[in-house]
Amino acid sequence: MRIGELASATNTSVRLLRYYEERQLIVSTREPNGYRTYDDRFVDRVLQIRGLLDAGLPTRIIKQILPCL
Fold first, then answer.
1. Using an 8 Å Cβ cutoff, are 1 and 38 in contact?
2. Strands (E), the chain
3. pTM value?
4. What is the C-alpha to C-alpha distance for residues 56 and 67, in angstroms, rounded to an integer?
C-alpha cells in the first residue's frame, strides 16, 4: 500500500508516517517511480506506535520495544 493509503487506514498524517520512517519505526520500499510502499502489517504497527506515544513513551524507547510486541 502507498503512504496515503496507510495514512487513511491508520488516521495518521502522511508527514507523521514519514517521521516514523525517519526514526526507523517503520520501513518502506521504493517503487521505480519513487513512491513509498508499505506492507499491510504496518497498519497494526502504526497503531501500536500511536498508542505507545499516547502513553508518553519517546520514539527512542518505542524503537527498542517494537520488536518485542
1. yes
2. 29-30, 36-37
3. 0.89
4. 19
Question: Measured between alpha carbons, how far is 19 from 13 in angstroms, rounded to an integer?
Answer: 10
Sequential DSSP letters for the chain: -BHHHHHHHHT--HHHHHHHHHTTSS--EE-TTS-EE--TTHHHHHHHHHHHHHTT--HHHHHHHGGG-
**Per-residue pLDDT tens listing for the chain (69 residues):** 999 999 999 999 999 999 999 999 999 999 999 999 999 999 999 999 999 999 999 999 999 999 998
Alpha carbon distance 47, 24 (integer Å) = 15
